[in-house]
Structure prediction request, 763 residues.
Amino acid sequence: MAEVPEPTHRRRSHAGTRDLERYAGLFAERTSVMRSSAMRDLMAITARPEVISLAGGLPDTSTFPPQSFAAQMTRIAQESAAKALQYGPTEGFEETKDCILEVMGAEGMLPDPDDIIVTTGGQQAIDLVCKTLIDPGDVVICEAPTYPGAIPTLCSYQADVVQVECDEDGMQVEVLEKLLADLRGEGRRPKFIYSVPSFQNPAGVTMSLERRRRLVELARAQELLVVEDNPYGLLRYGGEPMPPLYQLDGGDFVIYLGTFSKILSPGIRLGWAVAPPPVMEKIVLGKQAADLCTSTLTQYFVREYFAERRWQRYVDDLVEIYRGRRDTMVEALRDHFPAEATWTEPDGGLFIWATLPDYIDTSDLLAKALRADVAFVPGQAAYVDGRGSHSMRLNFSGVDEDEIREGVRRIGKVIAEQVDLYGALTGEQKLPEPQPQEAPNVVPFRKAGEAG
Amino acid sequence: MKVAVLKGGRSLERGVSLRSGARVEDALERLGHEVLPIDVGADLVKRLVAERPEVAFVAMHGVGGEDGTVQELLEILGIPFTGPGAAACARCMDKVQGKDAIELAGLPTPDWFAFNQTAFREFGAADALGRLEETLGFPLVVKPSRGGSSLGVRFAGSAGEVPQALVSAFSYDDRVLLERFVDGRELAVSVLGDEPLPVVEAILLEGDRYDFEARYEIGRTRFVCPAELSAEEERAVTEAALATYRALGCTGFARIDLILGGDGPWLLEANAIPGLTDTSLLPQAAEAAGLSFEQLVERILDLALSPQSVS
Prediction:
């Protein structure tokens, strides 16, 4: 065998660059709230190839036709190489905004293009809104559970995050009203209310029309900003379309966040925000400071892609695929989860939220599940205060139906062991083996006020 | 010298191990060694046989890398390695074995009872819980016998909380222990060769003292090194730690965790391969003793190659 020495020297050669103590004194105070925890270390192992991961939030990009991708990139190279490789405007290209108008139009919204900024993914839109609005200690209200990816952003701006419980109709706006009154009593005005009203991440629930109306009314009456994050609105597998908060409000008090990640590709990192002009002005300054402009190359890609006028058909294809995967997951949950478990049956989006008996801690369960080569997101990741420890987020968009069935079966098995053990520990009757059930086990949430 | 750095693996502490390993690799390179990084997997033996490193630096934590498994293989292959030998690793990793050895050496360790799952599933051990709770009192601590960091460690404040704590602990191991809670200062003594390093004290800054997660999060726990101890306290703590190190048969290095109560030190456990990340306690203690991270790594290598450790 030919001797090809493996490279043994890698990366940096500067002395001591890994020693925290050399830099510790320089860190900003906000880094102390950016925490690393044992649970995050656990999540690091979910990337092992043998693990069926229901933990991610990945759309299925394998269905995107490679020939279409190739044709668009070739067209860009031939016709617009110089421009596509150049900086672009901070707000994004007008042509990208036209595509955004089409997407928003599909859900009945018609914003002024000047109110739109193209961002590097929806995540940057969240970051820019926080950067624009939050001073350390400011109250921000979000749902309980909330999008796990929003928590590090809110924390890094040192927001005082208050979470309002959801039920099957989304954020409990009645509870929010009381909270707002209490805060007013303390002389505190929340900077904004963050919500994913449709097919929420992680809970999969959708805010009812009545609550949407009430939330918008409250925002208008109390002059509060609502940040509506709507990545999944077009991924609907059942139920009736709901008007976005932005549409109900007309864009005075609702800041709208959208993304191409779930309807096209997360790899292109294209999202957007829509905000009233005075807020948008500040967001643009923030964006300028952050990265000058969003990738021009991927903006060109989106523009070429939309020119083919097939984007809605691709969304329809995704809807078909994801509907099948959701159904498979729900069926697998009925087959393999214990009788006391409950879960949501979302009409869209990418996630199911399952809640187990309260003696099961899902972070500990994850350790056991990883030994069985399956992963999920423990519910605690969706709360700022340690709640959610009996729940888990399950993703059904990123793996195929066979893997969903097998993954849920494996999780069900480790849960059954815990249930069985608890029975033995408390002397309670052994619980019956999980039975396939006729009626769905859908009792998505505990009642308001009960600890999660 | 050609040094293999063993890291990663499949343990739950893979993340910490990769950080420990990366830091060790950098230090070894700066020291002028030829570094062979190995993320431990099914090809470990093949790679070691093919590459013939002169010594292996074991930067693995948790089951597989810290419990004697990898050490046993290295002993079979005749490759000198850092840290304690296979038998000592096995004793340190398993808290029940470790406490047995500590007690056998006449050293104080909080009272405990150990159970495996079978005892509960098949022999009705639950019926004995009341009796042992009476002996241990509340709060008591429930721990998986084998497991690192704070994973699966729970306090139970009352009898009602015990079953749930047991379910958590059993998520990490088939054997768990229930241990009397000792109130006091939380100290860690790292031993390098036969020398105790300055004592580290962990002081919880915020939150519930019964929240074990907090102990491992930057910003929630402050580590003081050297700990502020009277000369008498320091001697008692250091002697107890050294005696534990010997009782467990450790060589190379190890970290002994203990509680300093009003009535003296209570030994909890030994970590055969303590973390070597930038926030870990062993490097902090070494620095307090005037050893840079490179010097620490060099010393650990020397110990691995000294005749006593090769045995």
About this structure: Chain B has three domains: 2-83, 92-108+183-310, 112-180. The mean pLDDT of chain B is 90.
